[in-house]
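ARCHIVE CARD
Drawer: 12
Card no.: 0347
Subject: one protein chain, sequence and derived structure
Cross-reference: see card 0346
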Amino acid sequence: MENKKLLKFMTFNLRVDVTGDGINSFTNRFERVLDVINKEKPDVIGFQEVIDSMRTRLRENLDGYTVQGCGRDKKYHGESMLIAYRTSDVELISLDNIWLSPTPKIPGSNFGGDQSSCPRMLTSVLLKHNEVEEPFRFINTHLDHQGAQARYLGAMEIVQLISGYSEKFVMTGDFNALPESPEIKLITSALAYRGAYDCTSDLSGTFHNFGRIADNPVKIDYIFTDACCEKSYVVEDIPVNGQYYSDHNAVCALISL
């Protein structure tokens, strides 16, 4: 009989550390970030907007997790598609950093055209939980904030990549795209043959800009999978003396693998 396990996955845009954010700079709210993770206890996390200094702090302070990922720039610095998984329960089998571009193995490469100056990438890992017989694929990404064409090309590259995987997959990320956008529809339609879907489709918005648009947050963070999602939810961000844990709500999904 196949052995299945219900695992909790989280997508978490941490907002890059900017001094101008004042009380809401990452340096000031770091303890709140750790509190969210310690409370939710996800098995696997996909972080976005993690620069070098933030990556170091997470590796030093995220107890019980192994942290993987590199920066997106030419010299592997800058923002990373950071992945964290429970060290005691999950084993890393393989890791691949891929730049969303015509040259995916060249660090810092991009599509050009309407893409911003930011390189975009994904980190893909093959993981195995010690209570599950088969390994699973976990992918974390962050599509361009400026170029619609760049986002669509990035989504197409992601679809082609996932189509080559034989394992069940879970993909987290900030896609900078609304649910009805062509890039999101491409992902769900092109991967429908393997039963993939957005398991956060019933959730409200995720980007609130440190409460500035809290009444009408924007849905741009997603968790896609071709496995059975039992439940998904937004982790509420209630400010403490004006301080939020991020400008995005973290999102969790309970997925059976």
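Annotation on reverse: The chain has a mean pLDDT of 97. The radius of gyration is 17 Å.
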